[in-house]
């Protein structure tokens, strides 16, 4: 896709076009994330040159990443106009410098880290998943009325697995927890997915199908823990698993929704096709994103 360039702006390379589109879709990306997505075999200098060209044209701005020496980038109003002019679906969300520096910075970057972990796996395995494979903050009503209650998934991932015996299409809801809530609050949030699963609107027409209007089958839920030292995240993970075993309502989630939990470190280091997920309320032991135990993992 070629981004529409206003007459007063500099022309961009194909990589520049792709980077601008990714920034528009994913709201906020660090320099290292942009390199991982668009230039995994390239140099940091080359990525910085591309970003400098985008900044020179007025398409992007940057802010510092809290607690690091990293830089995060986002599209300006001009950048958004250029991407939308090239036919990309309009996104109502706009990143401002204040939002880019604000409390959602770390959460947005963490969601993108999860997407990149799947992207790295797809490249290694020759599966179908690219920079467009995850969508941020997808909204689903779970009540009716003038102001319906909404479940907002942090992201939805669409991934096609190529196995020797055929293709497997994976659609997953993503919840990223940075340790800002108690384990009990995390568990309570997960029950809203059960509410979505059972929600049947009373209206007639397409909206009466609820989530079925958007998904051929209900997406399973991936919970990724991050934002704290790994030993603390391990304790949170096992506390959530233990809570699920003792709470009959949470036990039912594994049968209906297939909720799995991992940490961002495990996912980034080993990938989603390693046994890094623990099923909430399910059998003891890790599985991969397809639900396979270590001895069943094909590759």
Helix content: 25-40%
* Structural class based on helices, strands and sheet pairing: alpha+beta
Q: What ranges have pLDDT less than 50 throughout 5 or more consecutive residues?
A: none
Spell out the helices and strands N to C.
Answer: HEHHEEHHHEEEHEHHEHEE
**End-to-end span in angstroms?**
33 Å
Separate helix tally: 10
- Strand arrangement, major sheet: 4-5-6-7-8-9-10
Work out the strand percent: 15-25%
Number of domains: 2
| Shape, per Cα inertia axes | globular
Give a quick rundown of the structure:
This protein has ten helices and ten strands.
Tags for this model:
three-stranded antiparallel sheet; 299 residues; 10 helices; seven-stranded mixed sheet; alpha+beta; 10 strands
Would you kindly provide a written description of the structure presented here, covering whatever features stand out?
This protein has 299 residues and is an alpha+beta fold. It has two domains: 14-102, Arc Repressor Mutant, subunit A (Orthogonal Bundle); 106-296. Helices cover 39% and strands 20% of the residues. The protein contains ten helices and ten strands. The protein has helices at residues 14-26, 31-38, 44-56, 77-85, 97-101, 105-125, 183-198, 230-246, 248-256, 264-270; strands at 29-30, 60-64, 71-75, 134-141, 150-163, 166-177, 220-225, 260-263, 277-279, 286-287. A hairpin with an 8-residue loop joins strand 4 and strand 5. 35% of the residues are buried. The mean pLDDT is 88.
């Amino acid at each position: 896709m070629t981004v529409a360039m206003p007459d007063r702006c500099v022309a961009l390379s194909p990589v520049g076009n792709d980077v601008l589109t990714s920034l528009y879709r994913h709201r906020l990306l660090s320099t290292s994330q942009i390199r991982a997505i668009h230039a995994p075999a390239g140099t940091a200098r080359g990525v910085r040159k591309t970003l400098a060209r985008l900044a020179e044209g007025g398409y992007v701005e940057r802010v510092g990443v809290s607690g690091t020496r990293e830089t995060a980038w986002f599209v300006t109003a001009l950048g958004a106009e250029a991407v939308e002019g090239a036919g990309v679906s309009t996104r109502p969300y706009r990143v401002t410098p204040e939002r880019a520096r604000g409390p959602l910075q770390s959460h947005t970057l963490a969601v993108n880290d999860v997407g990149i972990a799947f992207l790295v796996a797809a490249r290694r395995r020759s599966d179908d998943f690219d920079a467009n494979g995850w969508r941020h903050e997808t909204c689903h009503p779970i009540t009716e009325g003038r102001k319906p209650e909404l479940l907002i998934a942090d992201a939805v991932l669409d991934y096609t697995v190529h196995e020797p015996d055929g293709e497997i299409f994976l659609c997953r809801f993503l919840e990223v927890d940075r340790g800002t809530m108690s384990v009990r609050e995390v568990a309570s949030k997960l029950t809203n997915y059960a509410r979505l699963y059972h929600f049947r609107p009373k209206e007639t027409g397409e909206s009466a199908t609820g989530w079925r209007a958007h998904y051929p089958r209900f997406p399973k839920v991936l919970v990724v823990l991050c934002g704290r030292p790994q030993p603390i995240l391990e304790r949170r993970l096992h506390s959530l698993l233990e809570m699920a075993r003792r709470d009959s309502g949470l036990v039912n989630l594994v049968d209906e929704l297939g909720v799995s939990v991992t940490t961002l470190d495990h996912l980034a280091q080993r990938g989603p096709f390693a046994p890094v997920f623990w099923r909430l309320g399910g059998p003891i032991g890790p599985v991969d994103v397809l639900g396979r135990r270590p001895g069943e993992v094909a590759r």
